[in-house]
């Protein structure tokens, strides 16, 4: 009788341990369950699509997509505005008029025009930087070394350029408000500049903190102007209605913020280049939060926010495109097929494709990840986690039931043994 009970007990114990493998999965340092069903395989043709820019060594910097899903990008070293039609895979390039004299003598070779200072070509007359598209479809850009902002009208294929009033101001980031006013950061002059669409005139506003090196710039739904202050470790806000600035100290010292964007809830997101983080400022709660990027020293540069408020960003040294979902606090990273491509500008089209530039002079490409920003969060990691929780709940009920049965059997066995011993006595 004893052997029969023993076999029964061992059988139920084996069932418990057989099920435990699928329940007590390994976890990472953040307590997240480690699963193999995460991001799609990175180096596949279906995920990444890359296109070589016709002008060699052009150093693409920023990228944008118009309402027709035509892709526009600036070529910083060759001083050209690039256009790419995804339907035909056709490139068109337009040389900025003010750069024609010096660009005409540019010979593209492995040995010439490769010296840089401060990340920009010393032989560049313009060095295009910021890029945005207004409601009429005009393409606006900043000319960093040429001290101008420029406009390109695609229908007429015509350029217009406007010299910034402050000499050598270093116009850098660019954004457009609801009235098609053009806002830009003056990196060297420590100002925010505005090109007034109605009056066709400039206005400039000095930032309270000196030598702040303003970089990225964005506009919220109330037409407040947000910008990062790289050297001051702050983000700033300019209220158009009052003409006043507000400044906010970033949590982590020496973050070296670079780019900035606003989500649908009014949260302000920015990249922290030196501390390898994404920063977020809640305007409703008046507080900062930060998220540490999984890849070490990835150097996050530029970012874009999709319609589900997920943050997509380029990892310049990590050679990846990253995604952070605030709803689940989960990162996903996608390795770019071309090695050491140094991705910079990033944007999302109406089909949910994530476009970005590969800025290395030898690589010299634009690329996109197909459709990932179109899929809602529940169809990816969030759904996987929910399914995991449901499986855990079912398995927990099974184990609890089995455990109760085993305990009942053990108690019955010991009770019978006790009665037999009592009769012998």
Give structural attributes:
425 residues, 3 helices, 2 domains, four-stranded antiparallel β-sheet, Methylamine Dehydrogenase, Chain H, 38% strand, 30 strands
Description:
The chain is an alpha+beta fold and 425 residues long. It has two domains: 2-27 and 383-424; 48-376, Methylamine Dehydrogenase, Chain H (7 Propeller), CATH 2.130.10.10. It contains three helices and 30 strands. A four-stranded antiparallel β-sheet has the order 1-30-29-28, with no helix packed on it. A four-stranded antiparallel β-sheet has the order 2-3-4-5, with no helix packed on it. Helix 1 packs antiparallel against helix 3. The longest helix is centred in the C-terminal third of the chain and has 44 residues, at 381-424. The radius of gyration is 29 Å and the shape is globular.
């Amino acid at each position: 009788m004893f052997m029969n009970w023993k076999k029964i007990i061992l059988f139920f114990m084996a069932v418990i341990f057989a099920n435990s493998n699928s329940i007590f999965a390994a976890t990472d340092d953040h307590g997240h369950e480690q699963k193999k069903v995460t991001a799609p395989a990175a180096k596949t043709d279906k995920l990444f699509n890359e296109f070589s820019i016709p002008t060699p060594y052009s150093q693409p910097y920023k990228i944008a997509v118009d309402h027709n899903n035509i892709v526009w990008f600036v070529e910083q070293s060759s001083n050209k505005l690039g256009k790419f039609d995804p339907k035909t895979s056709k490139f068109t390039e337009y040389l900025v008029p003010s750069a024609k004299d010096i660009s005409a003598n540019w010979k593209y070779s492995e040995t010439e025009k490769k010296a840089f200072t401060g990340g920009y070509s010393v032989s560049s007359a313009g060095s295009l930087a910021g890029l945005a598209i207004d409601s009429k479809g005009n393409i606006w850009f900043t000319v960093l070394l040429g001290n101008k902002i420029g406009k390109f009208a695609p229908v007429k294929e015509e350029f217009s350029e406007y010299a910034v009033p402050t000499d050598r101001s270093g116009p850098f980031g660019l954004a457009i408000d609801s009235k098609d006013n053009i806002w830009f950061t003056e990196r060297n002059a420590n100002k925010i500049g505005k090109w007034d669409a109605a009056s066709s005139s400039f206005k400039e506003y000095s930032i309270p903190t000196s030598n702040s090196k303003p970089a990225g710039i964005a506009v919220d739904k109330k037409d407040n102007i947000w910008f990062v202050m790289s050297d001051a470790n702050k983000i700033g806000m300019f209220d158009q209605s009052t003409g006043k600035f507000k400044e906010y100290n970033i949590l982590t010292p020496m973050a070296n913020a670079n780019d900035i964007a606003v989500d649908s809830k009014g949260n302000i997101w920015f990249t922290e280049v030196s501390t390898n983080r994404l920063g977020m400022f809640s305007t409703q709660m008046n507080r900062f939060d930060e998220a540490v990027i999984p890849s070490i020293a990835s150097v996050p540069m530029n970012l874009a926010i999709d319609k589900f408020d997920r943050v997509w960003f380029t990892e310049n040294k990590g050679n990846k495109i990253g995604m952070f979902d605030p709803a689940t606090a989960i990162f996903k990273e996608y390795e770019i097929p071309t090695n050491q491509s140094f991705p910079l500008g990033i944007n999302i089209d109406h089909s949910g494709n994530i476009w970005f530039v590969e800025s290395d002079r030898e690589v010299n490409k634009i690329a996109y990840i197909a459709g990932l920003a179109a899929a809602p969060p529940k169809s990816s990691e969030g759904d996987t986690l929910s399914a995991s929780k449901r499986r855990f709940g079912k398995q927990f009920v099974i184990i609890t039931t089995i455990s109760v049965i085993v305990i009942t059997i053990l108690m019955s066995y010991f009770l019978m043994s006790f009665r037999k011993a009592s009769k012998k006595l």
